[in-house]
Hints:
By secondary structure, this protein is an alpha+beta fold.
Amino acid sequence: xxxxxxxxxxxxxxxxxxxxxxxxxxxxxxxxxxxxxxxxxxxxxxxxxxxxxxxxxxxxxxxxxxxxxxxxxxxxxxxxxxxxxxxxxxxxxxxxxxxxxxxxxxxxxxxxxxxxxxxxxxxxxxxxxxxxxxxxxxxxxxxxxxxxxxxxxxxxxxxxxxxxxxxxxxxxxxxxxxxxxxxxxxxxxxxxxxxxxxxxxxxxxxxxxxxxxxxxx
Length: 217
């Protein structure tokens, strides 16, 4: 069976719907769950709060909306290519971003979970940070800023058991980045495509503070 035909399986749709309702997030790009012959072109339109008009709604009106990015999910420089004929199914979805009057990012609360929609996705450092923001938003973690680099050209990982912080520069230029950690802010300069592995923690901080105090004498 072709993968797209699996959307004709009502059990598949019901299981995903229940999963989102109980707290999961369905992130759709371009034509997620699209299949002709049903009430909506996107079979998960009820979760996304958005659908694509394939011609059957020409005579129907559309919900108006206000574009709001209240949480700052979209970083400067992020760009999503829009597509035509998208519409809100009932007006309850929030439009986070648009281009030339066409929706480029929307979110929809569904039970304890969320539906998130983007009409396209192309790689860039800005778009990668946008995707990270959307995933954190989906998990109700967007306001938690620890171990998130302030420079979108960089990324980090922290291993609490060993207190090791790994910071990577993904660009071909020198980058400065700051990470908020459990042990205060860590600011590093990284050469192009460089990786820095640093142990952080109370005993390391005490050593650095003593060394700095000695140097200032």
